[in-house]
Description:
Elements: H1 7-38, H2 45-63, H3 66-89, H4 96-118, E1 123-124, E2 134-137, E3 140-143, H5 144-166, H6 168-178, H7 180-185, H8 190-216, E4 218-219, H9 223-238, H10 243-263, H11 268-282
Antiparallel strand pairs: 1-4, 2-3
Helix pairs in contact: 1-5, 1-8, 1-9, 1-10, 2-3, 2-4, 2-8, 2-9, 3-8, 5-6, 5-8, 6-8, 9-10, 9-11, 10-11
Amino acid sequence: MGAPVTIPLLVNLFLNGLVLGTLFFLIASGLSLIFGLMSVLNLAHAGLFTWGAYVGLAVFNATGSLPLALVAGAAAGAALGAVMEVGFIRPLYGNHTFQILLTLGLFLVLNELLQLVWGPSLISFGVPAWARTTISILGMPFATYRLVVLLLGGAVFAAVYVILGRSRLGIVVRAGVGNAEMVQALGVNIQRVFTVVFVLGGALAALGGAAAGPFFRVVWPQMGAEVQLAAFIVVVIGGLGSVTGSAVGSLLVGLSQAFVGYFFPAGALIVNVGLMALVLLIRPQGLFAPGR
């Protein structure tokens, strides 16, 4: 540890943990929806995260607009999510072994296609001038872009919470997961609803990738794979299908990684795995119920 432990340092680590947790939330929330509500373990989710980062980078370089880059990244994830569900996942509902094998193969294909287009090397992801400024919190500088990430995460959480908990779509999704035949008999196209869930999950993952690019200042082909383990830990801790659980789990994982990563770097992953194991021992279903 190269610096004394001070209140400003702890505040800075706390804020950085919140930002990191927000990025985890963006990928984990989509994974939780697909895995928790539809019982599909989508190992290709990390590929959508990475594609969102690269598409966002391409749009940012072409336009200089960060909002457009975020929107384009999310749109790319939504489109890929729709193609995956309609073209590949739909015939395999209920067959978890084939789902795992298929989505793992899709992840490898997405990764190879990405490297064919952009290459295997790291690529710098710039930040617009307005986001390169800093604000002072207890004498410690805090990048404006990190504040943008926090606000983005809060807005996404509110939107997804309302969609799942207060809208007709959320009611239909939960009912369709419980009894698809009954919902279909009531005149609802349940396959279309499940496609919408995949689209939403893909958009969230890719939005996370597009937001992570300026945070890390670079993009690289393995960036999605490197955060997917943390996303799975978040989903298990928070509870499958729970957007609130994803938010709380993401913040716990982000904060533990920030603090432990600073004071004891070798133990960052161990602490998160240990936290997941503790939750599984005490409350195997996760901290929150699905749909909450």
